[in-house]
Design brief:
With 504 residues, the protein is an alpha+beta fold. The protein has 3 domains: 2-78, Recoverin, domain 1 (Orthogonal Bundle), CATH 1.10.238.210; 91-392, Beta-lactamase (3-Layer(aba) Sandwich), CATH 3.40.710.10; 409-503, Serine Threonine Protein Phosphatase 5, Tetratricopeptide repeat (Alpha Horseshoe), CATH 1.25.40.20. Helices cover 48% and strands 8% of the residues. Strands 3-2-9-8-7 form a 5-stranded antiparallel beta sheet. Strands 4-6-5 form a 3-stranded antiparallel beta sheet. Helix 19 packs antiparallel against helix 20, helix 19 runs parallel beside helix 21 and helix 21 (452-458) packs parallel to helix 23. The longest helix has 18 residues, at 409-426. The radius of gyration is 28 Å and the shape is globular.
């Protein structure tokens, strides 16, 4: 254990005094995406640092005492083992996308209630939160907004946890409707098409603890939101809720239509269900909190900050499947095709992206397109998958040129290089072709300067030698001992390969 503390301490030193400036520890953690001021996992470290006398320098012993309660997290960060190791490179690209999208001023703010119509149309915020709790925010990330339809996947998860898949889907479908989110229509069984549209969300509300008073039901939803966000404070906008109730004719019509079709549980109180629905729409967060919730969904229901399991794996599997196919209103199919990330949008101008196993990203920009999705949010999402391999099917695109932020760029290049050299030594042409398609340099040598061609020659892999020559491998490349592939062929007596090399 002492060796581990020593290696971490040495990695933080930036001078020859053998002492560590606490500010250097904080800045290094920030560099890796961990915020000492706000991360609940580092609350004890923040307190300990605040109690240090001014200008205190840490010895290895005092550092070890500070680090001990947080050792696992500090080790992952300082060793580059967080889910996004090169967080600075990743966030630089996020900033570039943000700046480019910020120039888009098209669309208009939702105006069906005054509280949304009065929103500043120029608000723009993006927050990224990884499944390891790395956070990066841009723009108006502390501005509060009502979550609107982004509550729908959360309520769906709550219902699944309480009742199970079979019971929940006895009252709602799981297919895209192909129609507007508030269309007065049900599926062939007289049920709402899915939980991501208004009818399905109203049904979802009716399934959450119907035996309890409305106040207790809403408390359960609010406490779930807080747990998803690491027990952060979650707010509620009563003005939005009252305004939603004033404009409730369409939603009331949907509810009565479902009651006519006997879609609800027996004895469901329609008015109370609608009030519950409007309350859930009026939950209020900022992108900095919303992204933490998205990260918990990305982390299979386990909050990155508390390690508390809020939802089960199966619940998240069902939820993300429906976010992928139904989460963006009647734009859902196009979004799945072009972006390929589970998402849910809301009329306040927010889009919640869930990248399974990696991160949650929330974009907030109130200007909406004709469908009701944030214009900048959609554009940001499209730009995101142009730069990163976040599309669900990017794994098929070997030579896409996109960044994989979960693997350091140098590490990726070295792994590919060593794989190419190993494939050449065993004559695996299929693997060589695959690696070349990824852009691997066939003339890059290993530590000893030996290239793929060197190894193919030494292992007498004639077909591989011919393939590499055709692929423009340098036949006179020298290793650290000054030997070329031609020299190796002569030394080993491989006449056919020697002639092949000389004749090219």
């Amino acid at each position: 254990m002492d060796k581990l503390y020593s290696s971490l301490f040495q990695s933080l030193l930036d001078n020859e005094s053998g002492l560590l400036d606490p500010a250097n520890l904080v800045s290094t953690l920030t560099h890796h995406g961990l915020c000492v001021d706000h991360d609940v996992r580092l609350r004890g470290l923040k307190t300990a640092l605040s109690l240090l006398p001014y200008d205190t320098q840490l010895t290895q012993q005092s550092f070890s005492e500070l680090a001990k309660p947080h050792l696992s997290l500090l080790e992952k960060a300082l060793k580059g083992q967080l889910i996004i190791p090169d967080f600075e490179h990743f966030t630089a690209k996020i900033r570039s996308i943000f700046d480019r999208v910020a120039t888009n001023h098209s669309g208009k703010v939702a105006d069906y209630i005054p509280q949304l119509a009065r929103t500043n149309p120029d608000y723009f915020a993006v927050t990224v939160c990884s499944t390891d709790g790395q956070i990066y925010s841009l723009g108006d990330s502390q501005v509060q907004y009502s979550v609107q339809s982004t509550f729908k996947p959360i309520n769906y998860c709550i219902a699944l946890e309480l009742l199970g898949e079979e019971m929940v889907h006895a009252h709602m479908g799981r297919e895209p409707s192909g129609l507007g989110f508030n269309a007065l229509t049900l599926n062939a069984k007289g049920l709402p098409h899915n939980p991501m549209i208004n009818a399905g969300a109203i049904m979802g509300c009716s399934l959450i603890q119907p035996e309890l008073p409305l106040a207790d039901r809403f408390d359960h939803v609010m406490s779930t939101w807080s747990a998803l966000a690491g027990h952060a404070r979650i707010d509620f906008n009563n003005s939005v809720c009252l305004a939603e109730k004033d404009q409730s004719d369409r939603n009331a019509a949907l509810a009565h239509f479902m009651r006519e079709k006997k879609a609800f549980l027996p004895h469901t109180n329609i008015r109370e269900t609608l009030d519950f629905y409007f309350q859930c729409c009026s939950i209020e967060v900022s992108t900095s909190i919303h992204a933490q919730i998205a990260a918990t969904l990305a982390n299979a229901g386990v909050c990155p900050f508390t390690s508390e399991r809020v939802f089960s794996n199966d619940t998240l599997k069902h939820c993300l499947s429906l976010m992928y196919s139904c989460g963006m209103y009647e734009f859902s199919g196009e979004f799945a095709f072009s972006v390929g990330i589970p998402a849910k949008s809301g009329a306040s101008g927010t889009i919640m992206l869930v990248i399974p196993g990696i991160a949650g990203i929330v974009i907030y920009s109130p200007r909406l397109d004709d469908i009701g999705n944030s214009v900048r949010g959609v554009e940001f999402s499209k730009e995101l998958v142009k730069h990163f391999n976040f599309h669900n099917y990017d794994s098929f695109s070997y030579h896409s040129g996109k960044d994989d932020p979960c693997h350091p760029r140098v590490e990726q290049a070295l792994q590919q290089q060593f794989a190419l050299i190993a494939a050449a030594s065993r004559g695996d042409l299929h693997e060589i072709r695959r690696l070349i398609s990824l852009g691997t340099d066939i003339n890059q040598g290993d530590y000893d300067g030996r290239t793929a061609l060197h190894l193919a020659v030494c292992e007498n892999q004639l077909a591989t030698v011919q393939f590499l020559i055709d692929a423009q491998a340098v036949i006179h490349a020298k290793d650290r001992w000054g030997a070329s592939p031609v020299d190796d062929a002569k030394r080993l007596g491989y006449k056919t390969i020697e002639e092949c090399l000389i004749s090219c």
